[in-house]
Amino acid sequence: MANRKIILPQYGTVMKRGVLYYRTRIKDANGKLVAIYAKTPEELYNKETLALEQIENATFHRKTPTVAEYCEKWLLMQSVHVRATTLTDYTSKVRRHIIAELGDKRMGEVSLDDIQLALVPVSKKSASVYKSVVILYKSIFRAAMESRIIDHNPTIYLTTKGGGVPQEERQALTDEQVERLLDAIRDLPPYVFVMIGLYAGLRREEILALQWDSVYLDTDTPYLTVRRAWHTEHNRPVISDELKTKAAERNIPLPVCLAECLKAAKETSTSEYVVSNRDGEPLSYTQFKRLWQYIVTRTVKERSYYRYEDGKRVKHTVTPVLGEKAAHNGKVVYSLDFEVTPHQLRHTYITNLIHASVDPKTVQYLAGHESSKITMDIYAKVKYNRPNELVRSMNCAFASWDAAQ
């Protein structure tokens, strides 16, 4: 088929320094007339076509919503099909790490360089936080691309590899540390929480949502049922029947020490919640932090606080010494030379199950792991991190083989 002949428009001409130029005018993205010059009509036509394409793209980008506007819309769309706790996590990360950095830019103007620069502060956080923020970036811009909000996706080559600070491998508490921890907080508010974490392996959100109607102490084999989850919105507690995964709903048998602890707690409880505030309500986030502070203040970890002296805010640093009493509170004794986190209680429970030779599928059920890979990763690290036991197992495995040689 023969090439179609392009009919060139009629252009005006103008003399500039003795040279004849063809000229036309077009409106730029701001509506301002701009003159274009060329020595031939063909050259001017090509220049005009290219300029119009560039103006069209600029106009399109300018019409796209800002990153802040589209992110809020995306979060609203996610609210239809994700758990409330997941949406809370998304919202916090999107607003803190995406909107705060790029919120004023138009979606169509964001480049890969813009995103990588915005990720610099996130790279100083944990690898898991970095990975989740990158995934959010990719999800948001992919959705915008699929909805034709933007004409290119700047996150195509964005990767989660190598970003963030690697987290230290979780360590379970030793038997001696468990004993010292329980002695340090006995009869204090966090005691029941810690006991449930250590001897039932519940997640924090599962413990704080646990109600007495899910604790069965009068059966031949006492047990509790995980059926609710706790999270907070604007520091207010929200109790939901929607658990992290389907596997999170489970029945957990109670060892004698935990059953006795819960019986004693129930006798004095005036709340429907196993762990509650003074009003019998579930804890807010601030109240939980205050609860955990009973443990933190009994560790020898160096910490700072501020006091106003002569109208000035003065920083003071405390370096606790094991066995000594706190300077401003004689009831507090620095008795813990190790740090404790809420998740560490659960990890200790799972570790103890593995050391007790509980089979992996049972460990998976009791831990409420949806994926067997999560369980097996922990199982492998714990089970085979004792060289002496591993050598004995290998000797037994190859004993019959050696005898046959």
UniProtKB/TrEMBL annotation:
Function noted in UniProt: Site-specific tyrosine recombinase, which acts by catalyzing the cutting and rejoining of the recombining DNA molecules.
Keyword set, alphabetical order: DNA integration, DNA recombination, DNA-binding
Biological classification of the source: Bacteria, Bacillati, Bacillota, Clostridia, Lachnospirales
Family statement drawn from the similarity comment of this UniProt entry: Belongs to the 'phage' integrase family.
Keyword DNA-binding carried by entry: yes
Entries under PANTHER family matching the protein: PROPHAGE INTEGRASE (PTHR30629), PROPHAGE INTEGRASE INTS-RELATED (PTHR30629:SF2)
Organism: Roseburia hominis (strain DSM 16839 / JCM 17582 / NCIMB 14029 / A2-183)
Domain Core-binding (CB): 65-145
Keyword DNA repair: no
Gene3D superfamilies: 1.10.150.130, Intergrase catalytic core
GO molecular function, one term: DNA binding
Name of the protein this chain belongs to: Integrase family protein
All residue ranges annotated as the Tyr recombinase domain in the record: 168-392
Gene Ontology biological process terms in this record: DNA integration; DNA recombination
